[in-house]
Each structure stands twice: as C-alpha cells, then as structure tokens.
C-alpha cells in the first residue's frame, strides 16, 4: 500500500530541512548547507510491512509552483493521501504564500478530494514571544483561508521536538491498523508489567503506536528523557559504550543522571503524570544518538537506560520498527524485557 505525501510551501520555508532531519537522520546544523530543491524530489520509506510512504518534496520557487499548478497539475495532485503545506511563521511574502496555498487547495480538491491536509507553521524558533499566541493567530488565519476544508495545524521548528510531534501525528493517520497495534502493545506492556510500550518506525523514529495505559500505575514519574536540541547523550549526562560482535555492532547507552530541560514536571498532587512531550522527545534524542553513532562509524542497534525510578529498553521489534518498554518496577530485569521483545517479534512481523 503506497501513500503519496505532498510536501509543499514557499521556497526557503524549510521543507527539505525537515525531510533531511526526519528521513535522513541529519542534524539541524547541517540544513543551512542545503540547496534549493529543483522541481520535485521523491523519497520512499517503508513503514510497517506493506505501508510505503511516497514523499514528494516539491521545490517552492515561483517557477516550479506555477508549473505544478498548470502543466503538471494532474501529475502532482492526483492520488494524494496527505498534503503537508509549510508556512514560515515570519514570512515576508504572506499574501503570495496564501495565494499559492489557495490554488493548491483547489487543485487538491479536484484531483484528490479525500486527502488529509496538515499545515505546518514552521521556524517557530524565530517567532517573537509569546509564541503560543503567534501560533494561534497564524492557525486561525490559515483555517479561515482553508474555508470548509478540514485542516490540522502544527507549530514546528527543526530546533526542538515539535517537528517529531507533527510528523508522528501525520504518519499516524496513514497507518490503517494503529488501534490493533495499540492493543498488541498493551498486551506486551501487561506481560512486562510495563508503564508504557511505544512503537517507533525504524528509519525516522516517528511514533507509530503506543500501549496507552488507561489507568496509570502508581509511581512517581520523572520526565522520561530530557534533552537540549541536537545534543548527544554524552553531553547530557548519558554515557555510551559500543561493543562490536562478529555479525553486528551494538551501541548501548546507559543513563547515569539526568537534568530536566523545559520538561513539565508532574503536578504535585498527581504523581502518576508522565511528561506529555515524552514521545517526540524520545524520537529526537534517539535520532541525535544515532547520528553520534554514525559519526564514530558505529551502527545503532539497541539502548538500555537504568535510573533509580525507571528502566527503559529500546530494541528492534520487526524489520521496520523499534519498541521502547518503560518499567517503573525495580525488580524487573532488563534481560527479561529483552526476552519478551524477542518472544513478541513473531506476533508483530
Ligand atoms: P526550496 O527547496 O527552495 O523549496 O526550499 P525549502 O523549503 O526546502 O527550504 P530549506 O529546507 O532548504 O530551508 C531553507 C533554510 O531554512 C535553511 O537554511 C535551513 O537551515 C533553514 N531552516 C529550516 N527549518 C528551520 C527552522 O525551523 N528554524 C530556522 N531558524 N531555520 C530553519
């Protein structure tokens, strides 16, 4: 099953940068070197089993946009599953951006009326505070321009985890059996006495599904993992060791300490609350760690974290996925969690 995803927006709005972070594991610092996209660049990413994401990164220069909306209209806009339209939060060409967006919406209505539409208000790091208000104003403007077409708006920047939140949300809508997956993850969570089990796509580390425990168990939950943008685990109090085997290299990180950075603390009267940004933060951190591994020519395979309050094991589940198991019971050994992952593999393949 192939899902066509159109990535559109003005030139310089940041489309290729986000693609390079999410799909090619590059750090934000390298995006400044990216050249303008000429015409359309296509990528294929295999998600779970049969689901293939066919991403069309459409160069945003006026000449290309005009051509997508005229001679190439049917090629570009037919069979679209998702349109992701990127707007710079502080654009100097606001009117022109909106005009192109309106024209793209019309073309999409004609050729792919069922496509889902996601609008990214991007480069939020450049917005003048208070950023929530800036985003809300921009989102309102975009909803008005979209008229009766339903749209989902996210505020994003390549400099924090917001990009992963948006893309995980988008990808989640493309996965047909997400609720079945969640049920299986809940069974795995139960078997491991885990607080939560999270399934990630292998290349992008976007969240595919979670076990979503209905009633949180009784524990005092610190933020799952904390980070500063594009930092490596080592600089954050994580230590990493790498060991080579004859068949593959395993990079293992052990968390020895942590410092909360911009993570909402659990409320005093509610010790069960987990940090709401934990999924996208984990995606961002693992990607940063994978990048660190690649710089020392090691391949990332698995991760274990042991803190006083919780243990987490991240390991391959299937060819296209990783699973993260988080446990708050100190009597449960990581080896047991790894064994359960091994045993669960067949079910998920
Ligand atoms: P075209 O290929 O011409 O359509 O442009 P594009 O939309 O692909 O833009 P691109 O990804 O090449 O990004 C343009 C510039 O924006 C690069 O220098 C990026 O480093 C920068 N950029 C991308 N995302 C962000 C962001 O979130 N914040 C900031 N401050 N800069 C960003």
UniProtKB/TrEMBL annotation:
Transmembrane segments: none
InterPro entries in UniProt: Gtr1_RagA (IPR006762), P-loop_NTPase (IPR027417), RagA/B (IPR039397)
GO biological processes: cellular response to starvation; negative regulation of autophagy; positive regulation of TORC1 signaling
Stored CDD domains: RagA_like
GO molecular function, one term: GTP binding
Low complexity bias spans: 229-257
GO cellular component terms attached to this protein's record: fungal-type vacuole membrane; Gtr1-Gtr2 GTPase complex; nucleus
A Pfam family it matches: Gtr1_RagA
Classification via Gene3D superfamilies: 3.30.450.190, P-loop containing nucleotide triphosphate hydrolases (3.40.50.300)
Keywords: GTP-binding, Nucleotide-binding
Region Disordered, residue ranges: 229-275
Keyword Glycosyltransferase: no
Nucleotide-binding recorded as keyword: yes
PANTHER family documented for this protein: RAS-RELATED GTP BINDING RAG/GTR YEAST, RAS-RELATED GTP-BINDING PROTEIN
Subunit structure: Component of the GSE complex.
Record-stated family: Belongs to the GTR/RAG GTP-binding protein family.
Job of this protein: GTPase involved in activation of the TORC1 signaling pathway, which promotes growth and represses autophagy in nutrient-rich conditions.
Protein name from the UniProt record: GTP-binding protein
């Amino acid at each position: 099953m192939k899902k066509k995803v159109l990535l559109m927006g003005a030139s310089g709005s940041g489309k290729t940068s986000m693609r390079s972070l999410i799909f090619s594991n590059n750090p934000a610092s390298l995006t400044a070197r990216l050249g303008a996209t000429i015409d359309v660049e296509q990528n294929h990413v295999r998600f779970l089993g049969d689901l293939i994401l066919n991403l069309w990164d459409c160069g945003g220069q006026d000449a290309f946009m005009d051509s997508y909306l005229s001679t190439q209209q049917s090629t570009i806009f037919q069979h679209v599953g998702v349109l992701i339209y990127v707007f710079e939060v502080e654009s100097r060409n606001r009117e022109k951006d909106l005009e192109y967006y309106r024209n793209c919406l019309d073309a999409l209505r004609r050729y792919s009326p069922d496509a889902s539409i996601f609008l990214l208000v991007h480069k939020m790091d450049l917005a003048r505070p208070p950023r929530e208000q800036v985003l809300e104003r921009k989102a309102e403007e975009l909803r008005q321009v979209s008229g009766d077409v339903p749209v989902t708006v996210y505020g994003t920047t390549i400099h924090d985890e917001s990009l992963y939140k948006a893309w995980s949300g988008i990808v989640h809508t493309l996965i047909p059996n997400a609720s079945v997956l969640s049920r299986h993850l809940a069974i795995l969570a139960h078997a491991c006495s885990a607080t939560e089990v999270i399934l990630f796509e292998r290349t992008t580390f976007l969240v595919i599904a979670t076990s979503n425990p209905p009633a949180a168990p009784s524990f005092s939950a610190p933020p799952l993992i904390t980070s500063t943008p594009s930092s490596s685990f080592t600089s954050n109090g994580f230590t990493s060791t790498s060991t080579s085997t004859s068949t593959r290299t395993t990079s293992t990180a052990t968390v020895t300490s942590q410092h909360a950075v911009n993570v909402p603390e659990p409320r005093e009267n509610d010790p069960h609350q987990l940090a709401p940004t934990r999924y996208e933060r984990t995606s961002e951190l693992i990607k940063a760690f994978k990048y660190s591994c690649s710089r020392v020519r090691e391949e990332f395979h698995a991760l274990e974290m042991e803190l006083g309050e919780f243990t987490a094991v991240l390991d391959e589940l299937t060819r296209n996925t990783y699973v993260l198991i988080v446990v708050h019971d100190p009597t449960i050994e990581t080896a047991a969690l790894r064994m359960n992952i091994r045993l669960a593999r067949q079910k998920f393949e």
